[in-house]
């Protein structure tokens, strides 16, 4: 097995630069994971492939306003701070340490007193970031920044100055940032959206519930490494990123009930897959509750799936761990044939693109 086995030619014009006009009106490629048989459908048709007693499990994380554009104090030079994750506990309501990426890196080094100020819509400084240290074992030059504000809280300040980050392959999108959030998102904890869920509408979820399909959630805090391609020729040498995830008791109970009545567990997105399979307790032979634990689960062809029976997903970046995950869920041959079909049929690809349903 080589990383190049999961590569394919992605025409740049097929990378969706904006969401579908109607969330559940996008296209959906349906694939039988065992035979590779394909059908071209519309996303709302997923109701025809779900049975009473099936259970959908979605990642309810919400994308933070993590992209901060400001100026370096003292010089006025443009600077960007990208929030990755909070470091430790808040120092107080108006101050906290965060792990961040910065640009320009050479001018925002720890120990130099570098501070970046961010202004609100009225032009007033609402948030400041002092670069105080390097992150231990950093892979991409991550730094620790002390965020502080004069507003009532950091949360208020972030929403006054921050922007929802979009994937690097989406250029110049100026539409509604809320369209890069799922309709069921809750706590802001991610740097990227769990994009398979972008296709669901409240009306579709209600219709599925009326049909007897269950709906439960997990939370996995999606990091920027979700966009990272595998550089090693041997994919087994790749060190996958670590993310925090939670699986609540009510979801564990719903999975047990689904299994008892012969229904299927349908993961909405690869992040839900990683959460559910990470929560599998082999000794107990069941899923167990998890509360913000870490996972570095790496699913490759040959990996076993204990919890997930079907998968709603998007089309993924070539040579990514996500290509390997969906190949593990079906087979490399079936997935590559499906992608070749999608490209020939001009499906819209990646985060804002069309969907797949693998069952």
From TrEMBL:
<keyword id="KW-0949">S-adenosyl-L-methionine</keyword>
<comment type="similarity">
    <text>Belongs to the QueA family.</text>
</comment>
<protein>
    <recommendedName>
        <fullName>S-adenosylmethionine:tRNA ribosyltransferase-isomerase</fullName>
        <ecNumber>2.4.99.17</ecNumber>
    </recommendedName>
</protein>
<dbReference type="GO" id="GO:0051075">
    <property type="term" value="F:S-adenosylmethionine:tRNA ribosyltransferase-isomerase activity"/>
</dbReference>
<dbReference type="InterPro" id="IPR042118">
    <property type="entry name" value="QueA_dom1"/>
</dbReference>
<dbReference type="InterPro" id="IPR036100">
    <property type="entry name" value="QueA_sf"/>
</dbReference>
<comment type="function">
    <text>Transfers and isomerizes the ribose moiety from AdoMet to the 7-aminomethyl group of 7-deazaguanine (preQ1-tRNA) to give epoxyqueuosine (oQ-tRNA).</text>
</comment>
<dbReference type="InterPro" id="IPR003699">
    <property type="entry name" value="QueA"/>
</dbReference>
<keyword id="KW-0328">Glycosyltransferase</keyword>
<comment type="subunit">
    <text>Monomer.</text>
</comment>
<keyword id="KW-0671">Queuosine biosynthesis</keyword>
<keyword id="KW-0963">Cytoplasm</keyword>
<dbReference type="InterPro" id="IPR042119">
    <property type="entry name" value="QueA_dom2"/>
</dbReference>
<comment type="pathway">
    <text>tRNA modification; tRNA-queuosine biosynthesis.</text>
</comment>
<dbReference type="Pfam" id="PF02547">
    <property type="entry name" value="Queuosine_synth"/>
</dbReference>
<keyword id="KW-0808">Transferase</keyword>
